[in-house]
Amino acid sequence: MHQSDALLHRFEEAVAPVIDRCTDLTFVRGEGVHLYDADGRKYLDFASGIATMAVGHCHPRVVEAVTEQSRTLMHAAAHIGVMEPYVRLLEKLRSLAPGALRFGKGLLVNGGAEAVEAAVKMARYTTGRPIVIAFHHGFHGRPMGALALTASNSKYRRRLGGLLGGVYHAVYPAPRLEIGRTPEERGRAALSLLEDAFRTVLPPEDVAAVVVEPILGEGGCMVPPPGFLEGLWALARRFGFLVIADEVQTGIGRTGRWFAVEHWGLEPDMLVLGKAVGGGMPLSAVIARREIADAWDPGAHGSTFGGNPVACRAGLATLEVIEAEGLMERAVEVGAEIRRAFEAARTRIPSVGEVRGLGLMLGLDVLDPNTGLPASSQIMEILKAASRAGVVLTKCGEATLRIGPPLIITREQAASGVEMLLGVLQGTGVAARA
Ligand SMILES: Cc1ncc(COP(=O)(O)O)c(C=O)c1O
User: Tell me, which fold does domain 62-324 have in CATH?
Assistant: First the structure.
């Protein structure tokens, strides 16, 4: 028996099946843009640990920072005393943040959902208002609080009963919704539905905040129509509620800017960060406008491990590498090449649908050529076939391949990954039936 098969068997035996996987691979080592399985086979990583490993696997500067910090101080807890890496990471993040957040204050916790929940608590506490708006198709995490906002797939809520109350889900201008012919029309229609809710069911003066991903990740890599985010910000200003930008996935350079809101020149009242901010360690952050952060009373929130110094050093090293190696510029260039290659393939491979996204946050729709509809029932098999062909990736939305390699990926590596994927799409039943 191969070592991978043995490990897989142990997994099936010991791990609850709710921990679903999109490949049957085992990973024992990572280096740069590659992962290696228990039998020494090499895979190109287009998943980056779900948009986390921005500077690739085991980048020497991250490894060095983590090693040094582990030898010095692993944990003491921010509620007991001040740890320099905690302070330094927040100083660095706010120096990169847009607008007034540059003078803001923040806090560190352990994962994206926990940071979303902290932001929602801060918004409710400091505004004294009870309601939070989130969007259909949005994803903000799975614990019961964050899950109350998540609306990307109803299966996440199945059989759970009541979640956090006081959440209003607004319509997102998703491409398949028949609320307008053009993206702009859909954007305007979604805003107009929200305004109608303000008149009929949702008193705007009760709204503490809206939580929004600048680009929907898990929901299907959806880039908002022109004018939609600007209109949402305008409503927030008009009715005095806060805007919480959930940049857990879009942040830290993935879209070609430190934060995706910069593409629209928008300044949120709070920025929620996770994934890449910890350089592969569990870490997340909330940065808020100074007066909002200062209004949250001492002790009202906390976390034992949040801002663990080893994780902070991994995050700091990641930010340094992104700057030093010009990785945001690379994300833009390589992302555009990947996009072009998929767009060119659309004419010859009928299962290749629309490609969307910014920088190296890309989504490729896979279609059933017989119907032209999303290939939802085949997508998991396609992911497995891709992994067997040598490229690891995940899905989002109904049947969208999520292309999110480490930002260090070269053009050549990206091109070989695209070729492998197109080969899979051409060779699977999805394309063959056309
Ligand atoms: C936009 C967004 N918010 C929140 C989360 C939740 O993060 P975590 O899984 O670290 O709790 C995710 C995870 O994919 C995400 O994409």
Answer: Aspartate Aminotransferase; domain 2 (3.40.640)
